[in-house]
Amino acid sequence: MKWLIVVAHGSRRESSNDEVRALTARIGELSLEQFDRVTCAFLELAEPSIPDAVESALLQGAMEVVVMPYFLSAGRHVVTDIPEEVAKTTRRYPGANVRIANYLGSSDLLPSILLGLAGR
Amino acid sequence: MKWLIVVAHGSRRESSNDEVRALTARIGELSLEQFDRVTCAFLELAEPSIPDAVESALLQGAMEVVVMPYFLSAGRHVVTDIPEEVAKTTRRYPGANVRIANYLGSSDLLPSILLGLAGR
Q: N or C: which terminal CB in chain A sees fewer CB atoms within 10 Å?
């Protein structure tokens, strides 16, 4: 079973966290055969935490877990905090196949998406 | 002349601000006939400010300015702060054609981009 965890920063505004949950649901509908399950996690201010989400995936039988940083820049959160949060779980499951994908802001497709949103 | 301003939050990490500047340059290369000029601005912590960037576009002859919020959620920055910053300039140029585009996080294309980054 392949499992995708979308990791966002988390916000005091529950509506922002709900945006992430809605995005996660859309990814789940779209992922078809790429991932069997798609869930989300938050670095802070919202639940579930990253360690809890990774452990939950492993305990439910995920053979491969991909953690996707839903962040725009390669700041401390992406470079340091998310790997540390993931490691809190993986050090207790030494054989687990858990990897962290490139963060959203690294996508080559963002320029064309922004131009599309900007309209004519 | 049509002008696009990519508005990011701004960071104490100059490398994060430089990521926005590099993105802006790529959009400029890609925009071809859609926009004559593409620049960036920051809500805080980096320069130029949003009012300065909008005024600079108008003074350089922009007939239409599109402000693109490079933000993932519709929080206070998108809903309140960016419109207020834009209005600081537009209230001094009553005839100016300046509009704020939908923020990045509203794009329907994000799920497929995230799945692409997540890999197989």
A: C
